[in-house]
Structures are given as structure tokens and as C-alpha cells.
Amino acid sequence: MGGAVIDVESKDLVLVTGGTGYVAGWMIAGLLRNGYRVRTTLRDPGKQGAVKKAVEGAVGDTGNRLTFATADLLRDDGWTGAADGCRYVVHVASPMGQGASRGTDLVGPARDGTLRVLRAAAAAGVERVVCTSSGLAARTPTVPGERQPLADENTWTDPAEPGLDEYARSKVLAERAAWDFIRGDKSGMTLTTVLPGLIVGAAMTRHVSPSLELVARFITGKVPAIPHVGFSITDVHDLVDLHIRAMSHPAAANQRLIAAGDFLWFADIAQALREAFPDRAHAIPKRRLPDWIMRASALFSAEARFMVPLLGKRREFDTGRTAQLLQWRPAPSRDAVIRCARSLVENGIV
Question: Distance between CA atoms of 302 and 315, rounded to whole angstroms?
Fold first, then answer.
């Protein structure tokens, strides 16, 4: 994924939150490739070197075009300075739910952190903030049967939905708080929210995100049986491309954009990986995991609790509005999964 960074000194400064994150890393790389200057926030300033090294592995020498600010979503300190001088803000950072113990508060950090970012951006005269939300925030009410109603930009998940996990709830409430803020803001700043599916793609470092870890577990035989669960999938590079389009395109102002690709059951993912990696096919599962085992596992596994409400539900999205406004279409999900797996193999991660 290498390549020279465009040296266009007149390009604007963009703040990307949460620079150590998987999506943030590729967001920084994508912005630099398009000639923007980037400032990214870190909770720990000691990680500047690692982030710079990872980004430069993707785009080449960044020179003085990548800078850092210290800021934490849980604290007010640092956000005013981080946003100062920026034309755009891309708010990617959010607490993750996978692996969290029962009672972990994800809503507070996600919602309050988003509001800290928005307040700082408005005070700094930022033109537009693009927030990464989630397709989990656009879930239609469950109906009997496998195929669920198609969701679009007008669909909102009910945060009081029985069984809704804390991560999904945090994404809903954080996005709602962002829209409430922008409706009352007098600065003239605009907002765009982007709602992806399960995000997969090339690895930037050896530390992989939970979604990449899922693909890694399939290809290394660490999934003994396949639960009847699936997701709409978004390639990380398509997601970055959409954020950059949404950041500056007039038509994206104050829009909610669906960025979820086509739906794959876990069984489809396993089949695609067996076909793409015949030398590993013996390790990739074929056997179906009974639903009752997944439900029982939810008593002690946060990962299982996250997946139980998704059992047997085919949830799909309409990206027509996004395509109409920004001429954006996601890559086929099968291709995205295979590219992700190939990156994990080629980089020696699996």
C-alpha cells in the first residue's frame, strides 16, 4: 500500500481523532495521499513514533505534514489546541465493546467524547466534522424471519431495544448527541456521519482490530464451528475514501451516510477463505455452531453476548443515498475479506 505523499503545501489541516486506532491509521494515510496536512490526537504522546512509523510504511516519508496533539475523550484538556487551525475534523475514536466486562460504561465516553470534539471544533471555526458512527446505529426493529427490513439513512436503532449491547447503544447515543449539538450550534459548522458495516481490510501494524482478528481466527482454525451470524462489510479503504469525499463535498453537509457493503454470513466468509487459500482450507471450519451453544456462551463471554441478538438475522442496508450524493460504492464484501486475509498472511500476522 506504499506510495509517495502528494506535496501540496496549500492543502488544509485536518484533525483525526484517536491516531493509534486501525481506521484512524488508514484515515491519516488517505488524507496525506490526497495532499492534506494531518494532526492526530493521542492519549499517550509516547506513541507518536509508532504511529508515524506505521503511517510512513503505507505512504512514505510524511515530513512535517503529520503532527500530534495530546487529548483524551474522557477529559476536556487538549481539545481546544488540537482543533486550532483545522479546517476539517474527522472523529474516528470511540471505545470498543468487544471484550468489555459486564457493567463497563461505553456510552459515557462515546457520547461525552464526541461532544468534546464538537465543542472544540466549533470554537476553532472548523468548517465540517465527519463522525464515524456505525451501521449498528441504523438497525430496524426485529421482525420474524431471517431477512430483516432494509435500513437506510433514516433508520435509527432504538437505544432501549431489548438485548442491545452497550457498544451498539454507545454508537446510537453518541451519534444522536452529535446531531442534537449541531442543531443548536451557531458557528456555521456542518456535520456528516458515516455508518459502516464490519470494517475489514489491510493490516497497518501487527496489532489488529477486533474485526481483523475475526478474519485471522477463521484462517488459522481458531473458530471450531461457525455461528449463524453475519454482517454487512466495509473495506477500510472504501471507508477512508468516503470520509474524504464527505469532508469537503457540499452535498454531504449535514447528511447521514450509509457505508455498509453487502451482507455475508460467517459461513460465506469461511467458504470464501477456503477458496482463496486452498493450502489453509483444512483449518477453516465448515461445521455449524448450534444457536443454543452461542446463547449459553453469552452467560460468560462478552463476544457471545454481542452476537446473540444477531443470530439468524440478515440485516442489510440501502446505500443509494450515499451513491447519489457522492458517487461512492463499496467493494464486494467477499473481495474485502480476501484482501484482509491476504494482508494478514503476507505480513506474517497469521
Answer: 21
